[in-house]
User: What shape does this take?
Amino acid sequence: MTHMNWKQIALNWADFRAGIKEQWSKINDGHLDAIAGSREKLIGSIRKAYGTSQEQVEKQVTSWTKRVTQQDPP
Assistant: This one.
């Protein structure tokens, strides 16, 4: 389920950028350009920016993904 939800985000990356910056304010446009819809790159960028564990970031990204993909598209 998470994989399919992330596919929706990756395909509509430009639409989700603002929400990512709102959720993780240390992630900037340069990061988002480099991430380019990759969940793994997003997780790596969040870990680097916040010094958070892999497990914690995975939980945050999964929770955010579920929340934004259950709403109406941005």
Q: What stands out?
A: The domain at 2-70 is CATH 1.10.1470.10 (Protein Yjbj; Chain: A;). The two ends are 20 Å apart (CA to CA). The chain is about 75% helix and 0% strand.
